[in-house]
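Morning F.,

Quick status update on the modeling queue. The single chain you submitted on Monday has been processed. Sequence for confirmation:
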Amino acid sequence: MNIKSLLNKDSVTITNCDAEPIHIPGSIQPCGFLLGVQQEQHTITYCSENCAQYLGQPLSHILGQPLASFFKETEIAGFKIYYASENKELSQPFVFTLGDKSYNTSAHLSGQCIVLEFEPFVDDPHPLPNIYIQTRRFAYHTQRADNLVTFCRDIADETRQIIGYDRVMVYRFDADYNGEVIAESRREDLPPYLGLHYPHTDIPVQARALYLRNLVRMIPDINYTPVPLFALEEEGRPVETLDLTMSLLRSVSVMHVHYLKNMGVSATFVISLIHNDKLWGMIACHHQTPKYIPYYTRLAAHLQGIFLSSQIDVREVADAFDVVKKTDQKLQLMEEGFATRKSNIYQPAVLLQLRELLNADGLVLLDKDAHFIDGKVPSREHIRQLTDWLFEHVAGTHFHTSRLIDHYPGAESISEHAAGLCFLALDHKARTGIIWLRSEVQKTIEWAGDPNKAVSVDEVSRAVQPRQSFESWKELVRYQSADWHKAELNAASVICASLQRHMHLADLLQEESKYRTLNGRLKKANDELANMNWISTHDLKEPLRKIQMYASVVLEKQGDQIPDTVRSNINRMQVSAARMQLLIDDLLAYTKVVNEEKKFAPIDLNLLMPELHHELAEEIQEKVAVVHWPNALPLIMGVPFQIRQVLINLISNGLKFSAPGVAPVIRVGCEEVDDSTIAGITEKQGKRYHQLTVSDNGIGFNPEYRENILKIFQRLHSHQYPGTGVGLAICKKIAEAHNGFLEADGEEGKGATFSFYLPVAPVLVPTPTPGEQTENNFTEQ
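Structure tokens below.
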């Protein structure tokens, strides 16, 4: 049989202690002994070296033996029932006996092994703590204390009274796990530690992890000699180390022992304080001489830690209540002001309220490229640089810090006004947001020794050890503002929505003002256009009529006496006047389409087409033309006279631009299509349109001009064919007035096709109602 020691003999120094496997030291403290047994057969697989002393057998006779070889069967049976209970934590330990001695026995599972830790009953009698009295005193302290620090001081006093140690401290961690002593109960002749800070290096990461799981830790004598653990080594199967994370007797780090010796401490007891599943702090107890704390006394002290942990939330809320109350009052006033204020949020009074909402020293309200400021702020150039950095580096909508220098490269130059800030991005793209600024607050932190000298070098061995000096060391902290309270940050988030609404409202008001001004200008322009229409109708058409009339009179009465050249010029004058009159008529028709009120009505194309054919009969006969349309055309909704004008213009266009020597053939059709077939629609939404087409076999046009011919005054054949270039523009304008489109397609020498698209809408047809006029009654078809 080969017995192997589990003692961890790796060399540990201050430079590698943060990686020390302190949960598997392979040894325990000598204030008890340890057995590790299998779960089922309870065969002993691990034991501490001092088991030989307690059990009276050599280790070779202990390892591999059943637990029943050393304890009574009745105790083994009782232990099985005890261990099977669901809640062993903070309950009474199981009691085993060896001869005439009894042992408080704690049990926990480590891997596949049950770890039993035996602590002999102490010789001196200790009175069992009265939990009822302890609970009553806790209730008294809870009612008496008006803040967290006062309550922690009461807990420190109560804990010291229970365990009898020289010093009890309540130690709180910050976000980086630097610690501060916020409450202390001590022997009067000892120097005070209250208010001292300890760097996070004093408690390495892996030690904090153990404190989070094993909530009570005792070292009765720091000068103890570690007791190694042993296990049987089977051939071909390496011995597994024993995880002592939950152990009460677990041996401690050599570096921690050095640290305690340097502090002049001989015994320690630590209770973890847990809040929101994190290590919030601890109750740290020191004694100048070795001192063992019996199990039930430890239990009573642990109860103080549980009491304190349960009150952290309540007390922190109570401490912050005053800030919350005042902030809520400010927030309510601002919300009420926003609800009733007719002016915009950029007024000085509103900016002042915004700044005071977060108790800031300065405020910058960012709206695109404009900055609205209040209070103490950096220069505008520094604000611009800071704003650029915030919008570039802050990914989310919120950012706050009390040490801007840790984040922003240019913070040192603006710390007088902006050592800390709270930033809310309302719109990253529009560069809209708000910045609350706090000035630098220089303060002194009192450390337990210089935190920059966490190690010292032994002059003899030159070994690196924990620092030996714990004298008060003061550090001046710069480039830091007052911390932002949670209530203030919550208020900033709440006011964010109101700010967005009111900044949007301010934009709308500004846009409204622009549109009012623009509307006034447009109204004036429309009035001028209306006046021009009146002038066109009367002042221009009347002289043209007189020119034509006088020319006709001259030619009629004095035609024989007028030379041919003069007669030719008069004829040209008449043609020009007629053409000008036609142009004026077309312009009036174009402006009528733009300004005419739209009165949609059902249009039956089956009735309209014969009317148009009759109206154009002379031109059709003159050109020997043929106009085709289907027997069944749909009902559509539109402005009747405008739809009529579109068809007349397009059919007339086909008659006018007929090919020489070719009888015009004009085809009119109408079908329902999807918007995916319409080139003029870029965003397809599956809407339906009536496609009213007019095609001819005339001269056509080059397809590259399909857009130009729809523009006003654009004529491709200005010399060969009469016209003003307004007809197709009128058709396009009518299409737009109906939320539709006009498209042209053609090929030179083969003809042209014009497609007039109207959105498909329910067609309303008149239905008579008894006793009422029927002209305004419609039903959907």
